[in-house]
Design a protein that fits this description.
Blueprint lengths: L1 H17 L2 E4 L19 H9 L8 E3 L2 E4 L3 E4 H6 L12 E2 L8 E6 L1 H4 L2 H15 L7 E5 L8 E5 L6 E4 L14 E5 L1 H6 L4 H15 L20 E2 L28 H10 L16 E2 L1 H4 L1 E3 L7 E9 L5 E6 L4 E3 L5 E11 L8 E7 L1
Parallel strand pairs: 6-7, 6-8, 8-10, 12-18
Antiparallel strand pairs: 1-9, 2-3, 3-4, 5-11, 9-10, 13-16, 14-15, 14-17, 17-18
Helix pairs in contact: 5-7
The structure holds zinc ion.
Zinc ion binds next to strand 1 and helix 7.
GO molecular function: metallopeptidase activity
Organism: Chitinophaga japonensis (Flexibacter japonensis)
Protein name: Dual-action HEIGH metallo-peptidase
Length: 365
């Protein structure tokens, strides 16, 4: 762990200067209302608006259609729903970077640090499934735990500056310090100290994936983040602020992570990466060689999402043949005698896409 932290120490000093720091655990824009006499809980979007208007939200009271703030100032909900908070170029709308991904199958490598931790693994898989579940998008995400087949991104455990849960790279910007591919840095120690659930971790990972494909914070302009080197372009088809966006900059610790994408998040993704072609590839998440115990047993498609059909074929020159074809993503590879085998794998997913056959030569020692 210490070695890993040391290894990546230069990365995030670099990242801080160039990239966006994400999701502080505190909610500085939303001071918690701790007044015990408040009549009803105030929705966080109204607390944020009141705060953005320059009023103290401590002790704000909720009377259905009316809030009372700072003791005696009435504010109608209808006013907060419609008030223009700032000039027209600061409207809390989703935005995207100048450069987008130039691929649609993204392999994410997970080291044992993550796949060996059920809370994180569940969280990461749920985030990937959420992304793969955007039906009008051509993006396909694959998690792999063996680096042999190559990968595009890696999720890395790192110690990050105070209050930061995770960091990202944006597409098109230079690779960092020779580390292959682009990376999501996650501060596991900090996340663990907050006792976040796998659902909350999936919120964090799904948010970081959003940046990795070019989504800015959906409230970037209200926060004064500026366009930065990555750029910020509004979506012509998203005309309003999106309070429930996964891409809000601050992770609210009270958010249980049960809901990830908002409908506008899905609009943003399908606008940038529309499903006009499939180009679905899949990957065989096994090492190039290993003992039978490593190669055999349960195996899943690297693509995690709704799968209509999973196919495996394993053959060798001695006439061995194993086939699996089923909607169940879990296939069980039998014990294989030492030798060299040809693995073929293909999936069909609910978007109507059929992957190409992936072929690997794997040696059982
Ligand atoms: Zn962020």
């Amino acid at each position: 762990m210490e070695k890993q932290v040391w290894r990546y120490m230069p990365l995030f000093t670099c990242l801080i200067g160039i990239f966006t720091a994400c999701k502080k655990a505190e909610v500085p824009q939303q001071p918690p209302d701790t007044d015990p006499i408040q009549e009803k809980k105030i929705d966080s979007k109204y607390l944020l608006r009141i705060h953005q208007l320059g009023f103290d939200t401590t002790g704000a009271r909720n009377y259905d259609s009316l809030f009372i703030v700072e003791g005696d100032i009435p504010m109608a909900k209808s006013f907060l729903d419609t008030v223009k908070l700032s000039s027209s170029d600061k409207n809390g709308r989703h935005a995207y970077t100048n450069t987008l991904l130039n691929m649609n199958n993204i392999r994410i490598f997970l080291s044992e640090t993550f796949w060996g931790n059920s809370t994180y693994y569940q969280g990461i898989l749920r985030a990937v499934q959420e992304w793969n579940g955007v039906t009008n998008s051509s993006l396909n995400f694959h998690t792999i735990s063996h680096a042999d087949a190559g990968y595009n991104w890696e999720i890395i455990n790192a110690t990050l500056p105070g209050g930061i849960l995770a960091l990202n790279d944006y597409p098109g910007l230079p690779d960092i310090n020779g580390v292959p591919g682009y990376n999501i840095l996650v501060d596991m120690d900090y996340i663990n100290s907050l006792n976040l659930t796998y659902r909350q971790i999936s919120w964090i990972i799904a948010h970081e994936i959003g940046h990795m494909v070019g989504l800015r914070h959906s409230d970037w302009d209200l926060r004064g983040e500026g366009t930065g080197v990555e750029g910020a372009n509004y979506f012509p088809n998203i005309p309003v602020e999106d309070y429930s966006s996964l891409m809000r900059a601050i992770f609210d610790i009270n958010n249980d992570g049960s809901v990830l994408f908002s409908s506008y998040d899905r609009t943003a993704i399908s606008t940038l990466y529309p499903l006009h072609f499939c180009n679905l590839q899949t990957y065989i998440d096994l090492p190039n060689s290993g003992p039978s115990g490593t190669i055999s047993g349960s195996i899943y498609p690297s693509y995690r999402g709704s799968v209509d059909l999973v196919e495996w074929e394993i053959t060798n020159n001695s006439g061995f043949s194993y086939t699996y074809s089923d909607a169940d993503p879990e296939a069980v590879i039998p014990i294989l005698a030492p030798g060299t085998y040809t693995f073929r794998h293909r999936i069909i997913i609910s978007k109507g896409c059929t992957s190409t056959w992936n072929v690997r030569t794997i040696t059982v020692l």
